[in-house]
Amino acid sequence: MKQSKKRMMTAAAVTAAVAASILGAAGCGAAGASTTGAVSVPDTIRVENVEGAGNTIAVTGQEEVKVVPDMAQIEYAVYTQADAADACQSENAENLNRTIETLKGLGVEETSIQTSAYGLNPIYDWNSGTQNITGYEMTTRITVSDIPIDQAGSILSESVIAGVNQIDTVSYFSSNYDASYQEALKGAIAVAQAKAQAIAEASGKSVVGIVNVEEYGYNPEVRYSNYSGSGARAVEETAAAAMDMGVMPGQVSVEAQVNVEFAIE
């Protein structure tokens, strides 16, 4: 009780001193011949008691949740070569259209099929010393998304038969990612709280509440786990590989990290 009165008296004394200083400055200004305006005195002067500032602990918590993916995304391409540019383009378009029709026949929606990265380029004979054009090559990339995991293998195989001859990546993800991330967040908070409690107890104090929480690491892209193909190969080789490939998605790691500031006493 005495300490409380002492702090109140100190605050009152500081308030009086500040007010007297401002009023004194106003009086001096009024007496001076060069003064052109009145000094504004605030209605209220706040003196904050900062005693106890720093009675906090800031710790980091991280948690990982494993989830079995149920969806897939495939990125592959149709690659063609020919002596003439128009023949190369025509063959590429034919294989591309056949692939798209195959995908539709397997139940893939048009909105899940995206073609991109069209490229028609000359092929040079760099050994001749004259940079003669010996032919043309063209690549059209296709992304197929929203594939149920149990259909990924057949879609790969049938696409290769239809004309795909370059497999880039097969990505796996979970449609329950958000729920898994929230679970990881709760775990990260629990880890942070346990660390803060241990530090507080070692200091002879205890945790009394959370002052601030900062979330880091939310990145839906971590849902993807990629298989990278070996690039363009002959159609026969790629078809054999795809037919023999078993789609094994394994598990996807969902991670959450938080910085938490706890109040202690």
UniProtKB/TrEMBL annotation:
Please verify whether the record's keywords include Signal: yes
Enumerate the Gene Ontology biological process terms: DNA damage response
Please state the span of the N-terminal signal peptide per the UniProt entry.
1-30
Can you tell which superkingdom this protein's organism belongs to? Bacteria
Q: Keyword ATP-binding, does the record have it?
A: no
Q: What taxonomic lineage is listed for the species of origin?
A: Bacteria, Bacillati, Bacillota, Clostridia, Lachnospirales
Q: Which organism is this protein's natural source?
A: Candidatus Enterocloster excrementipullorum
Matching entries from Gene3D superfamilies are given as: Protein of unknown function (DUF541), domain 1, Protein of unknown function (DUF541), domain 2
A Pfam family assignment: SIMPL
InterPro entries given for it?
Answer: 26kDa_periplasmic_antigen, SIMPL/DUF541
Q: What is this protein called?
A: SIMPL domain-containing protein
Keywords (alphabetical) are:
Signal
